[in-house]
Structures
1.
Amino acid sequence: MTAGKSKQHYVFVIPVNKEFDLKKAAKSVNEKAIEMIRAKELLPLTGYIYGGCSPAGMKKVVKTVIVEKAIRFELCDLTVD
């Protein structure tokens, strides 16, 4: 969860093997800058504790940006013998 200079909140979904770039993220939502919100701000803002906040099924409406590469993935077999 992030906050822009405008005080608008955003959630970004990126591939697990990529690093989150705050400057690119800010540009993608037309913000001058964004920053990650502090863990203690998460519960009052979202209703979820740190580690339990998912971009799918949020209790409150938050603009969510999904990187295209995070959508296009191949499923793998995770069967354990």
Note: Strands lie at 2-4, 9-13, 34-36, 63-66.
2.
Amino acid sequence: MSHFAKINSNNIVTEVIVSEQDFINSGAVGDSFLWIQTSYNGNFRKNYANTGFTYDKTRDAFIPPKPYSSWTLDETTCQWEAPSARPGLYYNWNETDQAWDEVT
């Protein structure tokens, strides 16, 4: 079984399904959408697709929605990174202060 992401005309993932490889060929064209294979363990296309992700054809990668305007895309992983490293496990990003707040 393989996993496929349904991509709309804006390259946004609208659905992810599990299917036989022969049922949907990777890159098969629909009426106004495209099915693209995704890897559950991230072996290809950088990240496992999820609803709301964007498929970037140039990078051949699924990119999650940008969580905050100050974050930048890591070109190697196609994951968003905060302006500063998270200091520990129990911290949340505070976009207003541009800093990590400890969760108490």
Note: Residues 1-65 form one domain.
